[in-house]
Structures are given as structure tokens and as C-alpha cells.
Amino acid sequence: APKYDLMNDLMSGGLHRAWKAYAVLVADLQAGQRVLDIASGTGDLARAFARKVGPTGQVVHSDINLSMLGEGRDRLLDQGVILPSVACDAEKLPFASDSFDLVSVAFGLRNMTHKDRALQEMCRVLKPGGKLLVLEFSRVAAPLQKAYDWYSFRILPKLGQWVAGDADSYRYLAESIRMHPDQETLRGMMRDAGFGHVDYHNLTAGVVALHVGIKC
After folding, report:
1. Among 133, 157, 160, 208, which lies 20 to 30 A Cα-Cα from 192?
2. Rounded Cα gap, residues 202 and 185, in angstroms
3. pLDDT below 70 — which residues of the chain?
4. pLDDT of residue 179
């Protein structure tokens, strides 16, 4: 957990910050709105959302991983941002239906065992007209596939070992990306979960995609 943000910077060349900034732009939050950030980890998205909703709004910082949740809570407090931090499973969210204007999950859906169940829960806790943002690794454009595979399976585990002392987690990262639904499949899953309108934006040639679902 303490090396998570550093590894993200190294792995993506800092691009993860631009991807998240784009998600904040698409969120289009207004003062006073309520946000649930799932798999919030070190809290960078939660912090950005909190600035948008202001003191009259609320952002819930949540994660199933207690180490990541604690790291994020401490960083938020160090920056003067006080948010509720909740340890919870996205497949069984402990929130009332129709509670949030926005639900977000960045680089977390890929790790959920029952993605369909998690998406249904996200839809349930959203208010009618509310928005779900799913920022996740996806299918890269075909001309880049070979280079991307070489980087993912040869370089990422070595980076993980050198920086975080953990090659296996970053080997899993590369494998989990290949197992994750592609852009169109995830779009269909979101529709099946109850979202009336779903679109996606490919970022960096499809290395990452931002899916946007509206609860109708």
C-alpha cells in the first residue's frame, strides 16, 4: 500500500493522473452532491471529488482492503481532507438504495469476483439519473498489442520486485487485465445491471477505458 502511488507513476509514466483527471471532468459534480468512491485506495479520486462537492456535499472513501483504506485515510487527513472511510465489499454495499449522485470505481472492478453483482449494487445505491464511472484497464489497439504484452509481462513484474518487493502482484496485474471484459462486453454488462445508457471513452489507445453509465 505505501508504494502503490509510486508504482502507478512508474508503470504508467504518470498517465494515471491524467486518466483520473479526465474521470473527474466527466463526473461533472456539483456542490452538495453525494459520491461513493469504491476501491478508493489512497484516495486521489476521493480528494478530487471532495473539492468539487464542497462542504455541503459528501464523498465516501471505501475499499475492501484495510491496508489501502488506512493508507488513503491517513493521506487524506494529512492534506486536511476529512471523509468517511468505510471498509466494504462492492458486491454487498452497506448503503441504502438511491443514496448517491455518483458512484466511481477506478482500477478496482477488474479484481472483483462477481462483477455483475457489484455492478448491480452500484446501480442500486445510485439515485435515478445518477452516474457510474468505471475507469479500468481495457483492450489496447491491435497495432500496440505485441509491445504492450512485452511490457506487461517482462517489465512490470521486474518493476514490482525492484520498487515494492513484490513481483507476483504485478504479474497478476498483467494477467488480470487480459481476463477483464473488453470495452463492448463491459458496456453490455453495465446495461444488464440496470443502467439505461452506457458509453465509454478509450484513453491512450485503449490501454484504459472510462465507462459511463446512467441509472434511468
Report:
1. 208
2. 14
3. none
4. 93
